[in-house]
Amino acid sequence: MSAAKKVLLVTGGSRGIGAATCRLAAKAGYRVAVNYAANEAAAKALVAEVEAMGGDAFAVKGDVGNEGDIVAMFEAVDHRFGRLDGLVNNAGVVDVKARVDEMSLARLERMMRINVIGSFLCAREAVRRMSSKNGGQGGAIVNISSAASIHGSPGEYVDYAASKAAIDTFTLGLAREVATEGVRVNAIRPGIIDTEIHASGGQPDRVERFRDMLPMKRAGTANEVAHAVLYLLSDEASYTTGAILNVSGGR
Ligand code: NAP
Questions:
Q1: Amino acid 194: pLDDT
Q2: Could you tell me which of 85, 86, 82, 64 has the C-alpha nearest to residue 73?
Q3: Is 239 annotated in the active site?
Q4: Is the CB of 167 under 6 A from ligand 1?
Q5: Which fold has domain 3-247?
Q6: Ligand 1 mutation target, pool 10, 14, 17, most atoms within 8 A of CB
Q7: Kind of pairing between the strands at 86-89 and 31-36
Q8: Element (H, E) at 198
Q9: First-last CA distance in the chain
Q10: 36: Cβ below 6 Å to ligand 1?
Q11: For the chain, which end, N or C, has fewer CB atoms within 10 Å of the first or last residue's CB respectively?
Q12: Closest C-alpha among 65, 110, 124 to residue 91
């Protein structure tokens, strides 16, 4: 099967790191399913952009915090493309700045449901399709963790950091579980990347505030993360599984 026909699903593919990944993947010849939660205009604009450069993409709405949405999303990909070669578990959320002693149950449940359980359920659906044990042709999964999993994000969002630490261990365990089944599973820990996620957590100036504390004295771009994702998805990474790559400018 030529690389031109490979199919990639990117959760949260409509904006930020996910959108940069969809653009690069389309350029590399993947057919791309662009998942989004609510912002249909952004998803449609990205699909139009991919189509304008001769690529094949479609937008699929679905909340990765909802199992029914996830199952329907994978069925939509089956229907549209008839195969699956890669999954990028990119959809993720932060919350407003808070100490642990201020966090509500509702906040914690939302964080873990979207960031952790959503990634598990999407990987479940992908492995059901890609694993040779299940009759699939193999494939690759890239989970988007965060440098927060190492630093812990004290006073800011320890819940988010812990959700990403769960993604690190999930990556290692799943990678070993399916290692003989043609499916590679890796993760990336982005550092501070210039996207709208910071504003969504009530800190639109976060990139600016952290800039001087970063070894390179600058935030990363979504594109810089996307290049690492594309590498881990590619056959060039054929002996890389269970790896977690820091894309964090040295932090
Ligand atoms: P972003 O700019 O806020 O974009 C988030 C994307 O995820 C959007 O496409 C959004 O869709 C989608 N999304 C949000 N909640 C969703 C849900 N419940 N179900 C499905 N899609 C959902 O975020 P980003 O900065 O690119 O972050 C992407 C990933 O990188 C996240 O996992 C994040 O934790 C991780 N990360 C980011 C940074 C950073 O500094 N930016 C650092 C480390 C790790 P809508 O457009 O419909 O809202």
A1: 97
A2: 64
A3: no
A4: no
A5: Rossmann fold (3.40.50)
A6: 17
A7: unpaired
A8: helix 197-200
A9: 39
A10: yes
A11: N
A12: 65
